[in-house]
Design a protein that fits this description.
The chain is α+β, with helices and mostly antiparallel strands. The protein has helices spanning 16-43, 48-56, 75-88, 90-109, 112-124, 246-282, 294-322, 328-352, 363-374, 381-395; strands at residues 129-132, 148-152, 155-166, 173-179, 191-197, 204-205, 208-209, 224-235, 284-285, 288-289. The strands form three sheets. It has a five-stranded antiparallel beta sheet, covered by helices on one side. The protein has a three-stranded mixed beta sheet with strand order 1-4-5. A hairpin with a 2-residue loop joins strand 9 (284-285) and strand 10. The longest helix is centred in the middle third of the chain and has 37 residues, at 246-282. It starts with 15 loop residues before the first helix and ends with a helix. The structure holds flavin-adenine dinucleotide. Residues 98, 131-134, 139-141, 164-166, 216, 219, 224, 373, 376-377, 379-380, 382-383 line the site of flavin-adenine dinucleotide.
Length: 399
């Protein structure tokens, strides 16, 4: 059954090293993740042991440069690893995603000094990163954030409240989007990114307070927190690029996140499909396996086709972003299509399970609670459609 997650559609040629990594992660998921994921998820328990194993496998350094102890691989490898992890448990890919966005931005926009300071420890996973844009009053409307950083000599003084910070507690580094010039017109010209260091696991550090974990419907195990900044001082040397570059940098980085969320959707949908097709062949109704009833076959055919289409779109977006190009259109389309397809596949897989799909004894119940987050994180489907339409109108401009 695991073979269903191997398809690359001939769209990408993987090196032997990439194939070995993806195969190793698949084995790891089969032996170490799948047997415990349901239980840990139901307890909303952070998967300490699994994360340590992921560190030992070098997964946190996949895309970090070799000179900093990473594997120096591309975003395609990261996406394929994301599919495999999410097939086991989507939260594991969430634990990695903000870290990879932080590495991507540091590689592309960071100074040598900043890279020296953080990349080696990020490559081992000893130092892990969160990425914080959203606020209580501004999510889709990124330019509407109010978190403020004021330059004071060699430091910035940060004030404001951030919301929905994945890995907010355990991260030792926060990629913080803030306003350095709130009166800038247009507003995005007054936005900047600071790399904020903090004590991993501490709910209070200097001027940073982290309230208790936000309780969620699904996406358990990984923590999601608020971050409250009160006169918190950050060295000016931690500014990424120049003041006013932040919005453009974050929009570039978020495409990495959108490829990751597409990969997560493919992994989650693959698992839902596998669970449905297995159950359909075991469960009998009216004297035969339900897989022999045409309406169940119709569901399986539609699910399988949507899954394959999603996989191809995800690969196309990962390929473009791996080449270092901006990929608003491809990443937006993949994020929109893959996550909506995943939601539909998971819903249909639950129906195939009948009443048992509603029971916590079956994995599909967990997948059903995880899938909706993918429609929201890294920009909602509505926002993806705005991004897609803007790109299409630009491309097909009337002359
Ligand atoms: C579990 C979880 C983890 C998250 N992790 C992170 C993280 O690590 N870092 C981070 O920065 N953020 C994170 N987020 C925040 C996430 O990115 C936002 O929730 C998302 O961008 C939507 O913003 P919002 O919740 O403020 O919704 P709103 O922006 O208030 O949107 C509400 C509704 O209005 C729609 N809408 C908004 N604007 C428009 C428009 N112009 N046209 C049409 N419809 C529109 C939206 O699509 C949505 O349906 C996380 C969220 C969750 C739930």
């Amino acid at each position: 059954m695991a073979g269903t997650s191997t398809v690359s559609g001939g769209l990408v040629d993987l090196s032997d090293e990439q194939k070995e990594i993806v195969a190793a992660v698949r084995d790891f998921v089969e032996t170490e993740v799948i047997p415990v994921a349901d239980e840990l998820e139901h307890k909303d328990e952070y998967p300490e042991k699994i994360v340590e194993q992921m560190k030992e496998m070098g997964l946190f350094g996949l895309t970090a440069p070799e000179e900093y102890g990473g594997a120096g691989l591309d975003l395609m490898t990261y996406a394929l690893v994301g599919v495999e992890l999410s097939r086991g448990w989507m939260s594991l890919s969430g634990i990695m995603n903000t870290h990879f966005m932080a590495i991507y931005l540091l590689k592309k926009y960071g100074t040598d000094e900043q890279k020296q300071k953080w990349l080696s420890r990020m490559a081992t996973g000893e130092l892990r990163a969160a990425l914080s844009m959203s606020e209580p009053g501004a999510g889709s409307d990124v330019q509407g954030i109010t978190c403020r950083a004021v330059r004071d000599g060699d430091e910035y003084v940060v004030n404001g409240t951030k919301m929905w910070v994945t890995n907010g507690l355990r991260a030792g580094l926060v990629v913080l989007l803030c306003k350095t010039d709130p009166s800038a017109d247009p507003p995005h010209k007054g936005m900047s990114v600071l790399y904020v260091e903090k004590e991993p696991g501490a709910s209070k550090d200097g001027g940073i307070t982290i309230p208790p974990n936000i309780e969620k419907m699904g996406y358990h195990g990984v923590e999601t927190t608020e971050l409250v900044f009160e006169d918190h001082r950050v060295p000016a040397a931690n500014l990424l690029g120049d003041e006013g570059d932040g919005f453009r940098q974050i929009m570039d980085g978020i495409e990495v996140g959108r490829v990751n969320v597409s990969a997560r959707a493919v992994g989650l949908a693959t698992r839902a499909f596998e669970e449905a097709i297995r159950y359909a062949q075991e469960r009998k109704a009216f004297g035969k396996p339900i897989a022999q009833h045409q309406m169940i076959q119709e569901k399986l055919a539609e699910m399988g086709t949507k899954l394959e289409a999603a996989r191809l779109m995800m690969l196309q977006a990962a390929k473009k972003k791996s080449a270092g190009e901006r990929s608003d259109l491809e990443a937006g389309m993949a994020k929109f299509f893959c996550t909506e397809a995943c939601h539909e596949i998971v819903t249909e897989a639950l129906r195939v399970h009948g009443g048992y799909g509603y029971s916590k004894e079956y994995t599909i119940e967990r997948l059903y609670r995880d899938a909706p987050f993918l429609l929201i994180g890294e920009g909602t489907s509505e926002i993806q459609k705005i991004v897609i339409a803007r790109q299409l109108l630009e491309r097909y401009k009337a002359t």
